[in-house]
User: Fold these one by one.
Assistant:
Number 1:
Amino acid sequence: MLNFDYHNPTRIAFGQGRIADLATLVPAQAKVLILVGGASAEKTGTLAEVRTALGARTHATFSGIEPNPSYETAMQAVAQIRREGFDFLLAVGGGSVIDAVKFIAAAVPFADGDPWAILEKHGRNVASALPFGTVLTLPATGSEMNNGAVITHRAKAAKLAFSSAHCFPVFSVLDPTKTYTLPPQQLANGVVDAFVHTVEQYLTYPVNALVQDRFAEGLLHTLIEVGPRLLAAPEPVYDDRANLVWAATTALNGFVGAGVPQDWATHMIGHELTATFHIDHARTLAVVLPALLNERRAAKREKLLQYGQRIWGISSGTEDERIDAAIERTRDFFERMGIATRLSAYGVGADAIDGLVAQLQAHGMTRLGEQREITPEVSRRILQAAL
Amino acid sequence: MLNFDYHNPTRIAFGQGRIADLATLVPAQAKVLILVGGASAEKTGTLAEVRTALGARTHATFSGIEPNPSYETAMQAVAQIRREGFDFLLAVGGGSVIDAVKFIAAAVPFADGDPWAILEKHGRNVASALPFGTVLTLPATGSEMNNGAVITHRAKAAKLAFSSAHCFPVFSVLDPTKTYTLPPQQLANGVVDAFVHTVEQYLTYPVNALVQDRFAEGLLHTLIEVGPRLLAAPEPVYDDRANLVWAATTALNGFVGAGVPQDWATHMIGHELTATFHIDHARTLAVVLPALLNERRAAKREKLLQYGQRIWGISSGTEDERIDAAIERTRDFFERMGIATRLSAYGVGADAIDGLVAQLQAHGMTRLGEQREITPEVSRRILQAAL
């Protein structure tokens, strides 16, 4: 096992009806800016519940945070917060809104020029942040219980990540019934996003981290069990939603990844696909992962075999056949979730690859993966294999 | 899944050499009281490492906290802290030292008479506590990453538990090499303690909490894999120690038990055995658990079958035969760890049962278990079956 630090102070209020707890979770004297994406939080009544729970606290609402949240929109919120003096932020939405709020929380007190520098330095220059909480409506990214965020600079077509010890949510309210209005493709995105988060902290090389491996495998089993059921159910089933929410949260709250090597190359290559072609984040992961696992099969051999055996019950055949089968079962799972795993399905052809590789280089993504062996040339082969 | 709250702000510094991190983990201006058990922390050099890391900070050492730490000893530390004005406590040891430090931390500022009231009210009357960190040398109880403690009042022969949001360690240093000097029976105690903690949050009734079940099963698999290897190894193996430490910590940091029913009856009945007969805590659990599972087989039927199947691979026979086999495998595992599972092995006979049941009643332990169905009469049957 590798040495590690683990610290996650986010308070979780989980379950049906927990939005009412905002009455005690938000500081009594706070001046609150609620931040949301589109109109759905208003339409579904979630915002009304939130406002009721906030009671007599002064509050206003900032709406319009887009999927793959942009620096440009976030900076409008920063300006409003500075101008009007809000001292507590409340993200109501999914990973995009929460990621934007993390950046906004760090950007408001940022004193060192343009806050885009926070992304350029991956958060190392964040000295403080406004406190914020979240009300999760879309399970997927795990952002509700970690200190990381991904922001897109539209003018620069750049999608960069940052994290900071100052950017944990103070609390997150996770009410599974808030997922009831999600369309099937967003549920599928959530399942695949959580699945790939787990894989990226698990399918590397063995370091005898038995607890972490078992936890990762437990999340994968849960997502494989619940995913197809979520799509097939004619009406939402509470426990299935609850299991999706908690699996997605725990897939990226630092627990599965403590003390083990990590390989975020799938995310990094996927970010370029989103930045250039606006493909849903989870879908980029479903495209990149099978190709990446195949390309990196030698470096990941032992864990691929363990994954095949423990997750998919693959125990016969040569090692290479078992690895082939494990990758194929992974691809098949994504496809069964209604998510295409080939670039061609998204209208992206071979002519796009030069540009994508150039963007990876421009963003410093030149030595990715747990062994830092995924050079731009390896990324090129992965993208070609994903066509 | 049941609604739940989860909040665990303890910072973990895990790995070989991490005691040096006390230099930054402990506040620079702190006046530190180090608290230890016997002479071993001094003898092994751990205390020297701790003092070096504390550097120029004022510090002193309080030693003599016993296994099953007593109110009486803890109150001596409370008097010293009040007298000499320490403002940060550092527990160096196992669960006994850490539990004592939690009580001491809460007792120092306690303004409402005799701090024993903290135990009598199970912590509900704790309004604040001194900040404290821990350096773990004995993996077992998980106390290093939770807010609970168990204290024995010798004069009253009472062993009671309390917990408080104010009693999380600020940090815990988990260096697996610090377990290298432990005798085999303490390693065995650690494995069994962590195993039973996990079972008590898992073997109840199903609530469709897939993630929690998988995590619990992952811990049990880890302990079953690592336990016998720890006893057999001629020299300590780092990764085995690391896996024991992390499994024991995660077995009781709130994660496995979030959103599921819990059954702490084994602990409560075991506490009386320790209070009356001074049997090691883990050994009381190994005695009570098999008898309790058998007594409660109807209420726990579905989870016992799941446990038998997923943990021990038991899939043939009638349901009752499978449950018998699962309980027998559990007992056998404890025995293989060198831990006797019958009261007779500890010199406790049928004549002791009246007194033990009376103690349970005196301590209010009259409706134990996830269904609150373990009355004193049921506890009596469990103890009789454990003879």
Note: Residues 11-178 of chain B form a domain with the Rossmann fold fold (CATH 3.40.50.1970).
Number 2:
Amino acid sequence: MKSILFNPIALYIFLLACVPCAHAQIPDPGFTVDNTTAIVITDPQNDFLSPDGVTWGVIGESVIKNNTVENLETLFQLAEAHGIQVFISPHYYYEHDHKWKFEGALEKLMHDIGMFDRGDQLNKEGFEGSGADWLPRYKKYINKDFVTVVGPHKVYGPEQNDLSLQLRKQKIDKVVLAGMSGNLCVESHLRELLEDGFEVAVVVDATASAVAPGYDGNVAAEINYRFVASHVYTTEEFKQSLK
Amino acid sequence: MKSILFNPIALYIFLLACVPCAHAQIPDPGFTVDNTTAIVITDPQNDFLSPDGVTWGVIGESVIKNNTVENLETLFQLAEAHGIQVFISPHYYYEHDHKWKFEGALEKLMHDIGMFDRGDQLNKEGFEGSGADWLPRYKKYINKDFVTVVGPHKVYGPEQNDLSLQLRKQKIDKVVLAGMSGNLCVESHLRELLEDGFEVAVVVDATASAVAPGYDGNVAAEINYRFVASHVYTTEEFKQSLK
Amino acid sequence: MKSILFNPIALYIFLLACVPCAHAQIPDPGFTVDNTTAIVITDPQNDFLSPDGVTWGVIGESVIKNNTVENLETLFQLAEAHGIQVFISPHYYYEHDHKWKFEGALEKLMHDIGMFDRGDQLNKEGFEGSGADWLPRYKKYINKDFVTVVGPHKVYGPEQNDLSLQLRKQKIDKVVLAGMSGNLCVESHLRELLEDGFEVAVVVDATASAVAPGYDGNVAAEINYRFVASHVYTTEEFKQSLK
Amino acid sequence: MKSILFNPIALYIFLLACVPCAHAQIPDPGFTVDNTTAIVITDPQNDFLSPDGVTWGVIGESVIKNNTVENLETLFQLAEAHGIQVFISPHYYYEHDHKWKFEGALEKLMHDIGMFDRGDQLNKEGFEGSGADWLPRYKKYINKDFVTVVGPHKVYGPEQNDLSLQLRKQKIDKVVLAGMSGNLCVESHLRELLEDGFEVAVVVDATASAVAPGYDGNVAAEINYRFVASHVYTTEEFKQSLK
């Protein structure tokens, strides 16, 4: 406060950027894909993206409106074409997760509706085609070598899995982020990757969020991406940026 | 997906909770203050809460509308009256932080406007009354024994400081969260505290967020608190809950 | 330094505890099992504990000397008898882990010898009876409800998995730690659990460490457990403490 | 286990590397300083390195034997000469840290003897020349621009401070580690930096550890550095490697 008043350069920048502050634009630091950049996709799984998934009733409309399913496929294709590694951070709930003694609101909902259920990490019975399985159209990419599937996250962020380590073990410093759902796992990944020291951009229409009465997750996600990411792309803008 | 269809109890819960899903209410797990509960306040500093602070132009209107300054004072008073410990997670930027090679959007803005600036952790010159200092009316509480000031966070969340450790070293399991700004540091603290295994409630009108053209941080914060916290209080509701 | 000279109580404690400092005993804070206590076991897997495992040549002698296999079984039995939850933090390496661009010394060795290899988390082919599988005699415990298997760690500590979260979701504050190997995964779990705010005791003879020419991991583990844990038990002492 | 028997290449590597395994050498992955490399120094403070410090009685002999004080100064000089950034992770205990409800063994000792005591982060009274202050001969380096002092750690590792973030914000991927004390803060920093995805080498004689009856921290540190780091240097070897 004082410091800015007595620092002519800071004051000048402040005046340029902030007057009138009530109309301040949020700066856009920008993002450039280079050979330390990877794409990270959260939860490209049936329970979010298939009309048969347990959340389709609250999220299907957003998925359709954003064209999320096709946009995520475009990201896989662009990655393969341009030699960009893709890391997938999935969401699985095991039987023991249903015995948690407390949960936040959406954690409770996910457990109540059996979302992402899988017996345990050593059990694949009933997994094929379940809500926890990949959306079928993505399997042909995920099975290839340019895609790495890290361990499951358990709340919303990558704090419980090895995503950041796997990125660093490949000397990745910058992340283009997309997936499901926008204001929960994508946003928590965004925030944690920033704290872990990555540069992060988001592809906003390769995400989608749940809509509950009075609470539209898409609105929250779009605001917060703009506040904290280095840049927010549409899928088309990201595609153009690679040319 | 499959699992729910063949599991009559899960299906029943699903039908109760989710049909029609498009109108699904978000569950409210609830929150009860007990002797493992603390209040955590982020950034109760001049740069956010004083009309002289560097962000007042973008955040002052929200602070006034929410009555944030008084509501935070009420939280300090309730804590003292009910023997609840308060932990403050402040935000300081040192000279070397201005040499970062990359920043997200609001990180860039905060550095450009000299927000929370302080020479370094061994330098108090010019600190008194600066934008990084406490709002004066809170000092009489912060100087008391029921308040612990942890290290500074550096992006938005407590990943870079000792907040979680200090809470655990006092056998705290549950957190009532408030402070500044709503969709940045408060929300990042909320998300990280959840990942760290705390139960967390938010006092929504003891926060406030920046408003930029087209991007209202208050809207994002309110949606996301409701999605992920165990409960969202107003200050008045929190006060009533302690009776 | 100065502070102690001018603070009579601190000086008195210092003199009692530390003179002559060269002969200072390390304090023993002690540990009591209560209903917030769990047992955590790292890597109870064939590659460490079976004579057919890939590390038996360097670690078998320590396993036999400590009676590690039987002592770990005793911990499972004590846990079941006393209603103590057990959490297992396993070690799996997937195919993509073999493509890391850099590794520390033992990471390199583990990859070179194919330790804990498993195709990926969605692949159980060849797992049964492999080096990554549980030691057979532990399976009857691990399959029961008092045991929770968390995600795999990837270097040595629980930073890459959900161990701390799973403990907190069961309101666990205190950990009795054992498993393999002593100076690597056990010690890294010990150090990280301390940073995460748990009270931790170690059962030293329910661990064992590798011995390389000039470098005995058991020696390092025993010194460091004593320096940093709240208490170091033998299995017999731990058993007696539960009576 | 099985996998290696049926995999001729892995078996061959295994035979080369490990037969007879009882005599297996630990591999040495090596380390090369490049423009993504920084030096990290823990706790270069009076309480460890000055004959007036509170731990000199247990650690002084090791400091003298290793020539630690001079070797750390050599690292500062080499860094300045070769344009390598230095990051210091200090150790401060504030008044509220003395109210922790539980502590591991050395945490308890450090608090009992008033080690690294400082009122709080907004209080510099009595700091100059105290046990928490820098060893005087290092001040001329620490005051220069090539040195960054991050927040204090509170147990042993950088989990409670912003070290990893500050490194990443300077695009640092590799760390040369040294400082005090060898088997506590240096080793915990080593382990956590590995989990955070840094390549790490240690300069073993620019560290020193406490010796308690029956427990020589230097022995533990030297074994564990060799097991987990990418390379272990002496100060002289590190100097030669820069030529």
Note: Residues 7 and 58 of chain A are 51 Å apart (CA to CA).
